[in-house]
Amino acid sequence: WGCPWSLLALLSPPDAEKTPGYWNKGARRRLELALALQPAAQRAKNIILFMGDGMGLSTVSAARIYKGQLSGGSGEESILAMETFPHMALAKVSGAVPGGTLLLPLLETPRDLSCFQTYTIDRQVPDSAGTGTAYLCGVKANAKTLGLSGAAVYGKCRTTFGNEVDSILHRARLAGKSVGIVTTTRVQHASPGAAYAHSASRGWYADANMPKEALRDGCKDIAYQLVHNTDINVILGGGRMYMTPKETPDPEYPEDPDQNGTRKDGRDLIAEWLSSKQGARYVWDKKGLDAVKDDSVSHLMGLFEPKDMRYELNRNTSTDPSIVEMTEKAVRILRRNPNGFFLFGDGHIPCAGGRIDHGHHSGRAKQALMEAVMLDRAVARAGELTSPADTLTVVTADHSHVFTFGGSTPRGNSIFGLAPKKAKDKRAYTSILYGNGPGYSIRDGARPAASLPAAEDKDYRQQAAVPLETETHSGEDVVVLAQGPMAHLFHGVQEQHYVAHAMAYAACLEPYATEPGCRAARRASYGTQCSPQPLLTVLALCIAALIVGG
Length: 550
Hints:
- The protein has 550 residues and is α/β, with parallel strands linked by helices.
- It folds into two domains: 46-93 and 112-402 and 477-514, Alkaline Phosphatase, subunit A, CATH 3.40.720.10; 407-467, no CATH class.
- The protein has helices at residues 5-11, 20-36, 57-70, 128-137, 168-174, 190-193, 212-216, 222-228, 269-276, 286-291, 323-334, 355-361, 365-385, 498-506, 518-523, 533-549; strands at residues 46-53, 87-93, 114-118, 178-186, 234-238, 280-283, 299-303, 341-348, 391-397, 400-401, 403-405, 432-434, 473-474, 478-483, 492-495.
- The strands form three sheets. Strands 1, 2, 3, 4, 5, 6, 7, 8, 9, 14 and 15 form an eleven-stranded mixed β-sheet that branches.
- Helix 10 (286-291) links the parallel strand 6 and strand 7.
- The longest helix has 21 residues, at 365-385.
- This is Alkaline phosphatase.
């Protein structure tokens, strides 16, 4: 791990940045760490995949600044937990591999930069269903379809059969590992749904959301598949209403009929799930989650809202758990399996967690960036509960958004603040802007001027160039950050479906279960206790370097 610049800044004199020595010494320390970096070529016992829905590079950069400003700093010198990971790649969200080939990188020639391309078979700019199928199932697919190859057609039930593709979560469970899903969206949403469902439409949450033709042809809704397709040990997120019969009162909002159950088939999927598992527990609020003892359950389902969970800035901290709390509970339960585990963590950056995407779609940047910060806190907490010696942790996004920040703002300017100079129309504007979306506004024939403190409000909509009901995804590549066994496989510019293959190879999962080293990995006995050594080592290196260099 590199030495955090933010820590150096805290330990350095206020004017240290003005001297060349400050930058030269810092660069030398990073160079020494880079030279000492060696590939961890052993196989992974555990895999944690954090997916920031809609968390493009501009969101990552803005979230870094926001994190620093939340801590009282100027922000630019801050560093996210995910940014301490030593290996990085870029993923293509759109495009195709010539000849359909997939080449794993040579282990002896690792490169630190990897980029992933996120397009789907039929779209230049993708959605969360097609991308989820890529990074979880290992194949590019059509937009709006889940867990199906490109031969399936959106909305056409009959094209489902024979075109199903299994996710890495499903393959990990078949290999004897415990598996879990943590999301800030409904657990039937496209991103987590790709981990277990095969659906010609991402919108078939419950049978009530399906056309009669699809039901007649034998297709099952996503909520049904959540319970019946894969034996998932931990399921935490929202989505209660899709699990219970129509008009069933919601336990948290019993007086609100809009939150009632929606199922037309009369099935209580929560009851079915509980009855089919030994040692299973269901909870619907934070109190219930906190009461679950890590060693008392083999299966845990927690559904904390009828639909998506609330944004972090709107969350009731006494009734709803955060993505950090859900992640910790999941890891503590899953790591008890001596064969290891696979955990998918989805924060939407208001789309893994999952609400990042939703925040951007609504044009509310503060909601989106707070979700990104919380996802990063979940990454940090998972790192404290596991060890990079046996756990491969990957952080990525499914796609980006038409979100940007600029305007020649000075150092320390609030990330939600105004640009220092007015625009050509003589009106103020915020540093953060959207290319399109609901923030477009014309009043009295002109663009309204942005102002403080209104622009700092959590529900403020930044201005957009093109009027749309909801802001759109963007098509640029997304970053992939990795640490742990085989993390060096994430390098260069890759197709997004490569993510699933690299993780499967690292953990000896199908179709790589018989690769060299896998038999020895299955025999090996790994410890599962939390190891604080990596963080302590980083801190010691930073302080020692300052003492020696000073």
